[in-house]
Design brief:
By secondary structure, the chain is of the alpha/beta class. It folds into two domains: 1-87 and 179-193, no CATH class; 206-463, P-loop containing nucleotide triphosphate hydrolases (Rossmann fold), CATH 3.40.50. The chain contains 14 helices and 15 strands. The strands form two sheets. Strands 10-11-9-12-8-13-14-15 form an eight-stranded mixed sheet, with helices on both faces. Strands 1, 2, 3, 4, 5, 6 and 7 form a seven-stranded mixed sheet that branches.
Length: 466
């Protein structure tokens, strides 16, 4: 039975095969831009339901599209029914013309001799099934009032025990959209499914939110200075800490004026890894507590990770480390942190650089759009592939991060450099130019939304290798 609905407000809608559409409510046009015609229908019905909510009663909607003209009634709860007071005009179904059979010359055959049989019953007439009426896709796909399709009968279980279903069985329900026009409709009470881009972002967020059994160490490498190693270290750590929680450390493994300490927040002290080294036996003892590390690391209050600084004010000769020192620091870091990101120096032949490599589970090679930075990164991956079996595995599993550090470079430059690493690294991620990455302290929240999304994508690429 059709709901009795007054004529006001007047809503007319139009859809197209490419996912575009338009809703006109009392003369005011609302354009619709989606990817498919089904999404366009959903958006139109959502706007109609929103209007019905505002007037607290069902509304009439006349829709026109590739499937014809359909009068509808949309209720405030989002349900839809056909308006039987108006005449639907489905688009005519065009039957393809049968192809003519090729002409063949008749072939004369001898007449066969047929034995006579008793007269058989006349053949029963063949039943011709009538064509089904045109289907209203709006009601079929959108209305909870529409009847569900009848499934084929399933064999009944043999016993009551086999028929019992587990009380723990739960259906996984996707969270509604929070972004774009879909999110806007969700916030006004019309539940919408997320777009493909929002689903992709949720997938990346889930990847970096995981916790792995045992600690993981990721080295950020490139033999050239200024190749964006420090920003990559900071923002990867921030992504994993913000989404996955505490237990993330960045370590400045650079004895030639590493800048990680300069570009991150300082704690209530000035301690560096040189202050940590004498306390390694105590920190590795059974009586040590995680809070003891606060004397030596600098917590990032907004991005939630810790920083173990080097001392950029000393000459390299005054803070020369040995491979055993790297092992000692790593033992402390891997005891108290689940993820350790190491900002490496530029000397790939230095003992502490090579020892860092021995303690790493994955490497991230960084570059900008400068050709010398890119060539240095590529040569490093090629050298590691030939060094030994373990180094080759690190190179094979590497992630390349290409940053558009120069504001004068173009998106084409970024893509050109990135394409050169497709055969060298497991995954390649590009980071757009952002002035908040150029100088000063590095904080994830100061970046543009598109840059934050790119770093989340880079974090997910790293996570897939852990």
């Amino acid at each position: 039975m059709t709901t009795d609905v007054p004529a006001f407000p007047r809503i007319e809608a139009r859809t197209f095969d490419n996912g575009a559409g338009e809703v006109t409510i009392n003369g005011t046009s609302h354009p619709i831009e989606t990817d498919t015609i089904d999404d366009a229908r959903a958006a139109i019905l959502a706007l109609s339901a929103e209007t019905a909510q505002k007037v607290s009663r069902p509304v009439r909607v006349t829709t026109t599209g590739p499937d014809g003209e359909w009068p509808l009634i949309v209720h405030p709860d989002g349900s839809v029914e056909a308006d039987e007071t108006q005449t639907a005009k489905p688009a005519p179904v065009v039957e393809p013309e049968p192809e003519p059979e090729p002409e063949t010359e008749p072939v004369e055959e001898p007449t066969p001799v047929v034995e006579t049989e008793p007269a058989a019953e006349e053949a029963a007439p063949v039943a011709v099934e009538a064509a089904p009426p045109a289907e209203n896709a709006w009601v079929r796909s959108s209305s909870p009032r529409a009847s569900a399709p009848v499934s084929a009968a399933q064999p009944a279980p043999a016993t009551r025990r086999e028929a019992r279903q587990s009380f723990l069985t739960q259906e996984q329900t996707e969270e509604p959209a929070t972004q774009g026009w879909r999110g806007t409709l969700t916030r006004v009470g019309i539940r919408m499914s997320p777009s493909d881009s929002e689903r992709s972002e949720r997938s990346d967020a889930q990847a970096v939110s995981q916790h792995w059994p045992g600690p993981r160490t990721i080295a950020i490498v490139n033999g050239k200075g200024g190749a964006s190693k420090t920003p990559t270290t900071v923002f990867l750590a921030a992504i994993f800490a913000r989404y996955g929680g505490a237990g993330v450390l960045t370590w400045d493994n650079n004895q030639t004026r590493g800048t990680l300490g300069w570009r991150t927040e300082q704690g209530p002290h000035e301690a560096t890894l040189l202050d940590l080294l004498p306390q390694v036996p105590k920190l590795l003892s059974t009586g040590a507590q995680s809070a003891d590390l606060a004397h030596f690391v600098h917590h990032q209050t907004r991005d939630r990770f810790d920083v173990l600084r080097s001392n950029p004010n000393l000459l390299a000769s005054e803070q020369r480390l040995q491979p055993t020192d790297i092992d000692a620091i790593h033992a402390v870091a891997s005891k108290y942190y689940r993820l350790v990101f190491i900002d490496s120096g530029n000397d790939e032949s230095a003992p502490l650089w090579l020892q860092m490599l021995e303690r790493s589970d994955q490497i991230v090679v960084t570059t900008t759009t400068r050709e010398d930075h890119a060539e240095s990164a590529a040569l490093l991956l090629e050298a590691l592939a030939l060094r030994d079996e373990r180094s080759a595995a690190l190179a094979e599993n590497a992630v390349a991060v290409v940053s558009q550090a120069d504001p004068n470079s173009t998106a084409a430059d970024l893509d050109r450099i990135a394409s050169g690493f497709h055969t060298l690294a497991r995954e390649t991620v590009t980071i757009p130019h952002d002035s908040a990455m150029v100088e000063g302290r590095l904080r994830l929240g100061t970046l543009n939304p598109s840059t934050q999304r790119a770093w989340l994508r880079a974090g997910a690429a790293v996570a897939r290798g852990l």
